[in-house]
Amino acid sequence: xxxxxxxxxxxxxxxxxxxxxxxxxxxxxxxxxxxxxxxxxxxxxxxxxxxxxxxxxxxxxxxxxxxxxxxxxxxxxxxxxxxxxxxxxxxxxxxxxxxxxxxxxxxxxxxxxxxxxxxxxxxxxxxxxxxxxx
Length: 134
What we know:
5 helices, alpha/beta
């Protein structure tokens, strides 16, 4: 990968403070192009058009059920669907089970430790880049 290649990542977070914190953390990863959406309704069209490597989705978005949105992303019929990380302020066992049943790539309870967040995003991006080059 050359130095000018930017790897697209989509952050879906409605809370301005949380999105600012997460974008700052993501900026610690070289060669990422971070896109941000605050509205869940925009996610599917954005993914279809821009094909991000990874989507980071908060479960609590205005007007959209976050779990349903994750399921829609997983069902997209596009080459190489993006990897999915779910963020939630609820770490209750029932929520964790629902997320696990959907089959996301990672799950973090908010507030996130930004070092752990960055480490996990790096790992997922690396796996996705290697998979795309095969």
